[in-house]
Amino acid sequence: MGGARWDADDWKRASCATAGKRTEDIFRSSGMHPSLNPYGVVRESRDSLVNPQSNAIIIGLDVTGSMGMIADAMAREGLGTLVEEILRRQPVSDPHILACGIGDAYYDDAPLQVTQFEADIRIADQLTMIWLEKGGGGNCHEGYHLPWYFAAQHTQIDCFEKRGKKGYLFTVGDEEPPEELLASHARDIFGDSLQRDLSVNELLTMVSRMYHVFHVVVEEGNYARGNLPRVMKKWTALLGQRVLRLKDYRRLAEVVVSAMEVNEGRDRETVAKSWSGDTSAVVAHALGTLPAGRLGALRELVRF
Question: For residue 4, what pLDDT is reported?
Answer without folding.
Answer: 81
